[in-house]
């Protein structure tokens, strides 16, 4: 299992000016809060954090945070503010955890067996991911790194729904705990767009062909004879 450790220092200066100075010095301003303790303003090393962020598991793992000479605390990543166009982080929010209290986390979905999917192998379909992350609720000890979505038995034009997810023990979906719809689609198997368009064109051409044939028949039908006028000469 991946282990992630963050080393931080407390900071006293706050505000935009202080944050800019920190970033120029290769540091990232942040905050850690939760478990009925006071929020603590911290700084982290930018390059070290960027290295950690390259690992997908970092976003959904229990992290170890060491602030100065204090004992390490268990935290999770709750928010990350990135620069709009540079590869840089502007601010980070961390939340302390209580082993006996549930937490809400956003977890990635891992789609497996797409190459063996019935709708793909037998009918030439493609898989579309409608959702790639999902919010879950669980105790820290039950926090999964990701949730798998098995596409093996999904046929063409079938949809995978929230209710189809196989959740690990102790894990619940946040949306369903708050009145969400368990029929919400998360993935589907369908024909590629080019094939769908081609079939639509063929269907249109087929209809036009039938209409053209009917028009041709109507054109050669003899016009009905006019009834002789009562005023015509005998």
What shape does the CA trace take? elongated
User: Can you identify the CATH superfamily of the largest domain?
Assistant: Ribosomal Protein L25, Chain P
Number of E-type strands? 13
User: How far apart lie the N and C ends?
Assistant: 110 Å
Describe the overall structure.
By secondary structure, this protein is of the alpha+beta class. It has two domains: 5-96, Ribosomal Protein L25, Chain P (Beta Barrel); 103-193, RNA Polymerase Alpha Subunit, Chain A, domain 2. It contains five helices and 13 strands. The strands form three sheets. A six-stranded mixed beta barrel has the order 1-3-2-6-5-4. Strands 10-7-9-12 form a four-stranded mixed beta sheet. Strand 2 (27-34) and strand 3 (37-45) form a beta hairpin. The chain is elongated, with a radius of gyration of 31 Å. It starts with a strand and ends in a 14-residue tail after the last helix. The model is unreliable at 226-234 (pLDDT under 50).
Helices, strands, pairings?
Elements: E1 5-10, H1 16-24, E2 27-34, E3 37-45, H2 46-53, E4 63-67, E5 73-82, E6 89-96, E7 103-112, H3 118-121, E8 126-129, E9 133-138, E10 147-150, E11 159-161, E12 172-173, H4 174-177, E13 185-190, H5 193-220
Please give a quick description of this structure.
The protein is an alpha+beta fold. It has helices at 16-24, 46-53, 118-121, 174-177, 193-220; strands at 5-10, 27-34, 37-45, 63-67, 73-82, 89-96, 103-112, 126-129, 133-138, 147-150, 159-161, 172-173, 185-190.
